[in-house]
Every structure is written in structure tokens, then in C-alpha cells.
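Data deposition worksheet. Section B asks for the primary sequence of the deposited chain exactly as it was used as input, without tags or linkers unless they were present during the calculation. Section C holds the resulting structure in C-alpha cell form. Section D is free text for depositor observations; keep each observation to a single sentence. Incomplete worksheets are returned to the depositor.
Section A, Depositor: J.P.
Section B:
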Amino acid sequence: MALLEVGDIEVRFGGVVALAGLDMAVQSHQICALIGPNGAGKTTLFNVVSRLYEPTRGRVHFDGADLLAVRPHGIASRGIARTFQNLALVQGLSVLDNVKVGAHCRTRGGFWSASLVVPSLRSERAVSARAMEVLERLSLAHLAHRPCAGLPYGTLKRIEIARALMSQPRLLMLDEPASGLTHGEVDELGGLIRRLRDDLDLTVLLVEHHMGMVMKISDQVVVMEFGQKIAEGTPDAVRNDPQVIAAYLGASA
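Section C:
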């Protein structure tokens, strides 16, 4: 059984159809990439899976359970984490504190515990230790106590991935992680995503326009256009699909 299954998903914004009966499945431990022109519906699908958007119709199952029955704040505790196209880091906070925010769904803290004068030192230390482990894995530990403000863009992208990993997800959703990176940084990012998949037994769903990285690291590629799936398969199969070439990749010279 697939870890993530999307069936007949439709999303409408007034008269605009953002997703039109989309079906797809992501197998456990896969790196699955969503590609397509701007406006194809890729981020809309991300927002449906992460429960930011309510679909007009359809179904989404995660590990066999109905994900549409889960409230948005419960998604992380189910094992799903995501990043966003635009960085959502607090620039004035340290790298460590930004990453620690990602552990909120794995701690017992609530309104009453947060209001206590003396916080739980044991919980705080555990979260800090976990955050340092994640930063070490992403080669960011030396920046732990630096504020995010002023750090290079590629570093900020890694920090956002580190924050997502703090919830210990089974499905990691990356929305255009290579956007704005140099060619060298893109290559490093591709290697990092594969290592994280292997080392942490992750399944990765990736929206990306950088075709070199997509074709190099993906096990499965889903091609979208106008809210619909027009092709699906291995990178080689998709690369040579005439409909994909015409719609997105462009004719080869």
C-alpha cells in the first residue's frame, strides 16, 4: 500500500479550477517529484495534503488513514512535515531557536505548561539536544547560536529543512527547495535530500523547477498541467514522453 494516496482531488477557487480530478500515489521510501509549469497546481496539492486547503471533492489517505479528517494542526503529529516556497524563518531568532520551533508537535507543552514561571528543564534540554543533532546532520551546528538574519540564502533553506525534520516526519514535503540556489548549492541539496531519505527512512514529495536535480534524485516524477496529471513514471520515462516535452520540458535540439 502506498504511504500517500490522492484520489480524484478537485480544488476550485470560485470559477478557477486549480486541481481537476488528480490521482497519484507515493510509495514509502520514494523520492517523488511534482513538476509542471507555473500554475499547474503543484503547490495547491501540497496545501491540500498539509490541510491548508480544503478540496472541493476527492480523498487523501496517509498510511491508510483519511487525512481529510485531520485538522491542520494535527498533520505534523501524524508524521507529515513541509517547507514553503518563501522562507518562514524568524530572522531575529537564533538558528537553534528557529529549528526548535519544529518540535512543537512532539512536546507535551500546552497553554498551562507554557504559562508556568519555571519551564520543564528536562523537556527543554531534550528539544535542544535533538535540534543540535539535526543541525549537525545538516552541517549547520556551527551556526546554532547565530541569528538567521544575514545568513546566506542557501543556508536559510537548509535551516528550514532542519526545522521540518524536528517533528520526526515519515513524509517530508519540500516546496521548491532549490529556488534561488547556485548550481553548486543545488548539487549539494540533491545529495542531502537523498542522504536524508536513506538515513532517516523518509519518503519525500518534492515540488521543483530545477530539472537537473529532479531527474538525478527522483524515483518517480509526476507531471502536471492545468491542475491535471499528464504523465507519471521514472525520470527516464518522463524525460522522453512526447506530451511532457511539448508541455513543459521543451523540444530537444
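Section D:
The longest strand covers residues 16-26.
Residues 109-118 have pLDDT under 50 and may be disordered.
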